[in-house]
């Protein structure tokens, strides 16, 4: 196999890849949670939440691909099994079907968790002069913070 020479040494690529693996696991877990809530939401806000959750899980589905491809561009394997995601994710799965307002609260928590995970990685990527990862993380932070705000607004 040809050696990777993109201006980021192997040690930093490993550190960044590990951080991106955690972002990927959190994002995928949040995707699954959001899709589950889309299928199972009920109550007076059904139509609004059903459509909103669909938009959100579609965005997350695209995001996992971007994160995984960045890991691959760094020359590392991307985690891609439930077992790996459970081990890497800080977002826990839900048992049962929560009420609609609890779904909203749990998705706010999930988006804020992904934001914190991404924010932890940013200085690592920045110190390694890894602008593409910094750009990806910045974009993800914007999406997760905005989505958390929009969901939180439904609870007021």
TrEMBL record:
| The species this protein was found in | Sorangium cellulosum (strain So ce56) (Polyangium cellulosum (strain So ce56))
Q: Which residues form the Ferritin/DPS domain?
A: 19-156
Q: Which InterPro entries match?
A: DPS_DNA-bd, DPS_DNA-bd_CS, Ferritin-like, Ferritin-like_SF, Ferritin_DPS_dom
Check the record and name the PANTHER family matching this protein.
Answer: DNA PROTECTION DURING STARVATION PROTEIN, GENERAL STRESS PROTEIN 20U
Which family does the entry's similarity section mention?
Belongs to the Dps family.
Q: Which SUPFAM superfamilies match?
A: Ferritin-like
- The protein's name is Probable DNA-binding stress protein, Dps family
Q: Which UniProt keywords apply?
A: DNA-binding
- Name the CDD domains on file: DPS
Entry keyword annotation includes Endoplasmic reticulum: no
Q: Name one Pfam family in it.
A: Ferritin
Tell me the GO molecular function terms. Answer: DNA binding; ferric iron binding; oxidoreductase activity, acting on metal ions
